[in-house]
Specification:
Length: about 220
């Protein structure tokens, strides 16, 4: 997973290695030095996936917990504080995660039952809980119970639901939420005309989805 200025990889044994800019501890090796070759993330040996955000990183562990490290002024690490961390900390209250996505200053995870939880910067409503407040521990996204994947962008978030539809929430400028409006939304809205999505990716100002036939919108 490639973030803004750093990259991380899950290795076959369950460890994680990162490289690139380390100024906020986002390489997870206990340092804030940049690295031009991979360094091992401290204390992780059962990772199943990793997501590199702008200046923080999160990993799902085999038991369903999530650990994060790096920049944390808005609570994007999910441990209940707002101090940056150069080694992984456990996200509070998450024990059944199947995937995680680190955005600019927020993070979201899909849980095994199909719900989505988000934490960190809440401006524009990008945590999806009906509020614009920051949250340093996870909050549940309203009205989603069949999510299969989630993607946290810069100021918006989108999820694919089990039937193939997509819902998005957060900042709506430039139409990135796909609901035929540019208004921001603090709870999920349905993307118009999408019913067979298999994956979704939220960028800075736009969103794209792969459909079941292989086309992209």
């Amino acid at each position: 997973s490639a973030g803004e200025d750093h990259t991380c990889a899950v290795l076959s044994g369950g460890t994680v290695s990162c490289w690139g800019y380390g100024g906020y501890g986002q390489l997870g090796n206990g340092s804030t030095s940049s690295q031009s070759t991979p360094v091992s993330v401290s204390g992780i040996s059962t990772a199943t996936s990793v997501s590199a955000g702008e200046n923080h990183t999160c990993a799902v562990l085999s038991g369903g917990t999530v650990k994060c490290w790096g920049y944390d002024s808005y609570g994007a690490l999910g441990y209940g504080g707002t101090s940056s961390q150069s080694t992984p900390v456990s996200v509070s209250g998450i024990s059944t995660a199947t995937s995680v996505s680190a955005g600019e200053n927020h993070t979201c995870a899909v849980l095994s039952g199909g719900t989505v939880s988000c934490w960190g910067y809440g401006g524009y409503g990008l945590l999806g809980n009906g509020s614009t407040s920051d949250q340093s521990t996870p909050v549940s996204v309203s009205g989603i119970s069949t999510a299969t994947s989630v993607s946290a962008g810069e100021d918006h978030t989108c999820a694919v639901l089990s039937g193939g539809s997509v819902k998005c929430w957060g900042r709506g400028t430039y139409g990135r939420l796909g609901h035929n409006s540019t208004s921001s939304q603090s709870t999920p809205v349905s993307v118009s005309g999408i019913s067979t999505a298999t994956s979704v990716s939220a960028g800075v100002y736009h969103t794209c989805a792969v459909l079941s036939g292989g086309s992209v919108k």
